[in-house]
Amino acid sequence: MNIEEYFAQRTIIQENLLNFLDDESNDEEKYYDLCKIIEDIKIRDNCHELRLFLRLISKISANYHRNPNFFLKIDRILGLFKDEIKRYYSSAEIFNIFKKNKRILLFLLEEKIMIIDEYILQIMTSMKYKNMEYPQYFAPEIKSIVNEKFKNNNDFDKKLLIEWANKELPENFYELRKEGENKHFICKLIRNDSVVDFIAYLNKNNISPNSKISESKYETNYFLMKKQKDLSIKLIEYAAFFGSIQIFNYLKFQGVQLNPSLLLFAIHSKNSELIHIIEENNANSNSFCLQSCIESIKCHHNEIVNYLYDNYLQNEAD
After folding, report:
1. Counting beta carbons within 10 angstroms of the beta carbon of residue 261, is it exposed (0 to 12), middle (13 to 18) or buried (19 or more)?
2. Is the pLDDT score of 151 beyond 50?
3. How far apart, in Å, are the Cα atoms of 179 and each of 3, 172, 217?
4. Were 180 and a residue from 85, 213, 220, 244 both cysteine, which residue would form a disulfide, CB within 3.0 to 4.6 Å?
5. CA 267, CA 269: separation in Å to the nearest integer?
6. Residue 277's pLDDT band (boundaries 50, 70, 90)?
7. How far is Cα 75 from Cα 57, in angstroms, rounded to an integer?
8. Local structure of 212: helix, strand or coil
């Protein structure tokens, strides 16, 4: 196979995977098309091909726009390779492929495709992953190993870790972490674009339109997990991320500033109308254009990549 044929093959795999994930009609034809590609390329029979495919799933899952059945479909795809993943890779290797994906790691643990060993625990309890609340999210899975490994350790961080692992879980803990979204009520209103209830909630609780959302250990969107620790996230940024156009327009009407950085959030929504609103309000600013194009590539939102390139970057490239 020459290089052109190889890249054509990669493109076909990506296209069929995205077609299946985007299909909200639950038409089995898209699933069968994907399965046929998997069989034709013999992904199961080659650990290197399988690793490439799993990395593709990992990258798409970390950034791609999620429809309501997104993770049910991801779980279904990974279930096809359950035996092969266990056969070819150690738990540490599996973790390193999917470490940006809390929700996928949860599926792999529940299906006993991987386990949390001391190596994985060490990574999960490093500062980067503590900041994204991995220990709290995986508290039931790390409880026994934490209690055994650190029971006589007087280090403050280790004692805190034991406290997290043994803390009584909320009644709806398992449901919320499988949903994988910020648990706070105002976030749910934004995700559903429930503008009437959103306005009533702001007024009732005297919340400013310029407010920021609270952090949540149940958050699994990697972009949001990073942002909520680095800078915290404004209501309008959260609305842009989920493409909640009615709430976005309400906040805009209330005078919330539309900074160019909003484009990075809006890219994740795949909402072209929202992207154009942000463009129109930043007509003289191209400062985020290249960064936005890179973010679109990470998301595998190919139509947005092409749009940004054709309208902003092509002249610079020429």
Report:
1. middle
2. yes
3. 40, 11, 12
4. 220
5. 5
6. very high
7. 10
8. strand
